[in-house]
Write a structure and sequence with these properties.
The chain has 4 helices and 8 strands. The chain has helices at residues 3-87, 129-146, 166-182, 194-198, and strands at 91-100, 103-114, 117-121, 155-158, 187-190, 202-209, 212-220, 229-231. A hairpin with a 2-residue loop joins β6 and β7 (212-220). α1 (3-87) packs across α2 (129-146).
Length: 232
């Protein structure tokens, strides 16, 4: 084999190696481009999902804010009406909502009007303990009526309006009677107050005699219904 033939053979061998190397590199390039295209497609899908989730989050947040505001207004209205029914028209109940460390919090206030003067205080600082008792009672009724967690069943009260003065206790009794009728809920309460026990459809007296509890019926109107009242 002469030198020319050897040169041609070496060139052909080198060319074959280059062709094989090119083919391998092209195959790798094509695969990488395909993987890149798949990754880009996955990225776009993830970005679309993230955008959708963000929109859902914003929607849920706005819905939550709206629902919270609606519940706030309903509770404010019911508690205010309760306070005004018992203490007069110059008193309101207000709720201030805020968010602390991502959690909603509420502050309760009583607004008392004296002519053109409005005084805002915490419930415990407004007109003595009777206000706190009535707000607690009204809040309990409001929460029960504004949620679906306790659709049916009685309202059970233990010494409601314990600190309300005798000037207003008759109003409390009438308010409870009206609440029972309006919301069609039976009210069962334990009380030592004569005004509250006298409005009940059915009343029991519990006395201790010789170390034993003796229960007697002290009044029975004979018309106990789900929206009636019972006291002990």
């Amino acid at each position: 084999m002469n030198e020319m033939e050897e040169l041609i053979e070496r060139v052909e061998s080198g060319t074959q190696k280059l062709i094989l190397d090119y083919t391998a590199r092209k195959s790798l390039k094509d695969r990488l481009e395909e993987e890149k295209a798949n990754k880009v497609e996955q990225y776009e899908k993830l970005r679309e999902e993230i955008d959708l989730l963000e929109k859902v989050r914003i929607l849920l947040q706005k819905t939550s804010d709206y629902a919270r505001e609606q519940a706030k207004q309903q509770i404010e209205m019911l508690v205010t009406r309760c306070l005004q029914f018992i203490f007069g028209e110059n008193i309101e109940f207000k709720i201030e909502l805020s968010e602390v460390r991502g959690r909603p919090e509420a502050e309760f206030y009583v607004v008392s009007s004296y002519g053109d003067t409005r005084i805002v205080t915490k419930p415990q600082d407004a007109r003595g303990g009777g206000i706190v008792d009535i707000i607690s009672l009204a809040l309990r009724i409001a929460i029960i009526q504004c949620t679906n967690t306790y659709v049916n069943g009685p309202i059970i009260l233990d010494e409601p309006a314990k600190h309300v003065s005798s000037e207003y206790i008759a109003n409390v009794a009438y308010f409870l009677k009206q609440m029972s009728k309006v919301f069609k809920r039976q009210i069962i309460m334990v009380t030592h107050n004569q005004f509250l026990s006298e409005i009940a459809d059915l009343a029991y007296r519990v006395e201790q005699k010789d170390g034993e509890s003796v229960v007697t019926v002290c009044r029975d109107n004979g018309e106990q219904k789900l929206d009636g009242m019972a006291s002990a």
